[in-house]
Design brief:
Elements (H helix, E strand, L loop, with lengths): L3 E4 L2 E3 L5 E7 L6 E9 L6 E7 L3 E4 L7 E6 L4 E6 L8 E9 L6 E2 L3 E5 L2
Parallel strand pairs: 2-11
Antiparallel strand pairs: 1-3, 3-8, 4-5, 4-9, 5-6, 7-8, 9-10, 9-11
Length: 117
Amino acid sequence: QVQLVESGGGLVQPGGSLRLSCAPSGSIPSIYAMGWYRQAPGKQRELVAMSIAGGSRNYADAVKGRFTISRDSARNTVALQMNSLKPEDTAVYYCNAKSLEHRDDFWGQGTQVTVSS
């Protein structure tokens, strides 16, 4: 079973930056979108950013202007540059991929991001 593998989480002070990266452990055909979700304690998982085939990028209102998603379609990798981090950005961040050939999304195991002084 192919999985997505995330890296780059950690502890950072408010105002700092982190970069998350994600790549599949094997081949996933016909990916049309890759992105990031997050889940904070006691809250539902929410979309952070998504890069869709054709160049469209969607961001949650809470991260617009601070986070930037980038995707390498040839390698099926996706990254999330997070700047001006706030304590409310603290969450487990999950990589997500959507394929035309699979009904269910692909998910990573999650990487912890903690913003605290």
